[in-house]
Amino acid sequence: MKKFTLMGLLCAAFVLGYGFSRLTNPVNSGPRVTGIGGIFFRAKDPATLKAWYSKNLGIRMTAYGSTFEWHQGIDSTKKGFTAWAAFKESTKYFEPSDKQFMINYRVEGLDQLLAQMKAGGILPVDSVQKTSYGNFVHLMDPEGNKIELWEPNDVEYAKMGSVTTK
């Protein structure tokens, strides 16, 4: 019986200590990627493809694609969003990449993250675009994939609404 009590106390102490340390010293504090902000890809016929995803997979579409709403784990009262969008094959938005996909990463501390990257020799391919629903900038990864960094303003993004199209 003593062995189980001692083991239970040790487990409880570990769990409480770990939980407290995570609250007071988050592993990923500072400028960083916090999640996927969107999946963007080229399509021969974006309208038809959106209609197919809507009909067959039940994805509700807006004029731009779809937005998936979720609640942030650390503070479940805060909403977050992930975009899904098909672009025309001829779009210039992915340039200078010749790839079919572009991933949008949600970030915290965009300016600080860019400064860190610049110090490491990584420069954006454009300047930071500021919008009411967040700030955006683009980079190229080592394999020539264009990526988008988005420091979101989820409160303003939520106000944009969710008008659906077919």
From TrEMBL:
All residue ranges annotated as the VOC domain in the record: 35-152
Superkingdom, natural source: Bacteria
- Gene3D superfamilies the record matches: 2,3-Dihydroxybiphenyl 1,2-Dioxygenase, domain 1
Q: Quote the InterPro entries the UniProt record gives.
A: Glyas_Bleomycin-R_OHBP_Dase, Glyas_Fos-R_dOase_dom, VOC_core
User: Which protein are we looking at?
Assistant: VOC family protein
